[in-house]
Each structure stands twice: as C-alpha cells, then as structure tokens.
Description:
Layout: E1 8-11, E2 21-24, H1 25-102, H2 138-171, H3 174-178, E3 190-192, E4 195-198, E5 205-208, E6 211-214, E7 220-222, E8 227-235, E9 239-245, E10 250-260, E11 267-268, E12 273-277, E13 287-294, E14 297-299
Antiparallel strand pairs: 1-2, 3-6, 4-5, 6-13, 7-12, 8-9, 8-11, 9-10, 10-12, 10-13, 13-14
Helix pairs in contact: 1-2
Amino acid sequence: xxxxxxxxxxxxxxxxxxxxxxxxxxxxxxxxxxxxxxMLAGWHIxxxxxxxxxxxxxxxxxxxxxxxxxxxxxxxxxxxxxxxxRIENLSERAADIDKIVHGPxxxxxxxxxxxxxxASGxxxxxxxxxxxxxxxxxxxxxxxxxxxxxxxxxxxxxxxxSLRSVEAASRDDEAYWRGIPIISPVQGPVSRPxxxxxxxxxxxxxxxxxxxxxxxxxxxxxxxxxxVVSRTGVNASLGRYVDIxxxxxxxxxxxxxxxxxxxxRKRVERGEIIGLVGMTGKTSGYxxxxxxxxxxxxxxxxxxxxxxxxx
Length: 311
C-alpha cells in the first residue's frame, strides 16, 4: 500500500504530451533552501563590492579634505611665525624708544606688555609650534593656531598703544627730544660692534665701548643730536675726537677724525658736520669710533639709530 502524502506539489506541463510530475514537501523545501543560500551568497558578494566602492569614494573625499586642511594649517603656521617675529621686533623697538624718552634706567615700557612680553600677571602666549601635532584633529589644530594669532594681534594693538603713549610723552618735552642721539654720525657698515671680544690665541677679553663705522676718507661726520661741544682734542687711542654734551644726561663721542671742524662750547644741531673721517690714533683703516653715554654709563649705540629724518 502506497504511503499517503499529506502535502505534495503537482507540476502540470503546458504540453499535454509531457507527463505531470508530483513533488513532496521535502524536495520543495530543499530547493527553497538552496535558492535562499544562493541569494544570500550573491547578496554578500554584491554588498562587499558596493561597500568597497563606497569606501573608496569616501576615502578619496577624506584625502581631499585632509589635503585642504593641511594647506590651511601650513598657511596658519606661516602667518603665526610671521606675526610673532614682527611683534617681537615691534616690542624691542618700542622698548628702545621708551628708553630714549625716559632714559636707559626706566622701569619699563609704557605699554602693558613690557619690552619682551606680557607684564606680571598677564597670560603668556605659548611657544610657536613648528609642525602639526598628530595627536590632535585638524579642526583642533586650526582652533589652537587661530587663538594664538588672536593673542598676537592683541599684543600688537597693545604695542601700538604703547608707542602712541611714548609719542605723546616725547611731545611734552621738545628740548629733551631734540637732544636724543638717534641718527648715525656717518653712513657705512659697522666694522666692529659694541661689546666684549675674546682673543682665541691668548684668551684675552677686550671691551669695546663703542661702535666702529667704516667710511671713506674725509667723509663728513655729523652730530647725532642737538648739544654743546664739551671737548675736542687728540688721544693716543682715539686720535682726534669730539665730545658733545646734549644737556639731558647724554654725551656722544666721535673718534679717529682726520680734522675737527668745531670748537669747544659751540652749539650744534642734529645733522651738523663736526669733523671728517680719518684714521688718526690707534686704527688700521678709515672709520669713526662712536660712543653714547648716559649719566656716566656707556650704552650700545646701535640701538639708538633711527631714520635720518628723526622721529
């Protein structure tokens, strides 16, 4: 006796000459399982391919964005370094001007930043970063550098305010300002700077208390500020020289002159010719030895040179 099938599928062909076929439940389920497995395999392969395509596109876009951010960071770093350098120069110049107006022993610049940075209690800017820190995101790096640039701009505004204050103070005493030695006595390169030098052979330390400026023979030497000629003479080291008292605590000296063109007690103006370049005294070439003194203390003249038109 044939086993009775509870569920069966009958396939009726379109052509009457073909025989019909009957399928049980298990073969049908097996076929469906195989079909499902094939569909899942196809989906897995297709999805992996699509994911790869999408990831490649996203990666390319991220690379473009990263390159753009790198360019922005490089530009910000360059701007940061430029601003910092210019602000340092401005701060040093402001300190020099403040010393000129108030004397070398002034307690500090008029501005809130001081000669080289923030005053006591003020927030000090962090040092410049030479490169991008890979531990931070590009957005964080941009924010950090942008904040630093903002601080540098604030410092610039403070320095400008300090310079305006110095300008206002200088106008209050025109006589004092007139006697400040702010120009070079002669145009030429510095052949020997102010300060100490050490002999490499003898290890001897020598102090050079002035500035040597090379120039052509008999080139005019000019007074660097208004004053009164306090002394002229001949020195074994300096040769022919001129001292000018500017009557505000400052005294300037001009040495190695070939000829002195002024007399003691003569009043001279800034830029007036007082002598000619020579090589008298202890020297091996034509130049001017120039000194700046304030209240008996010798100063570095190179920090006192400003444009010929004055300030």
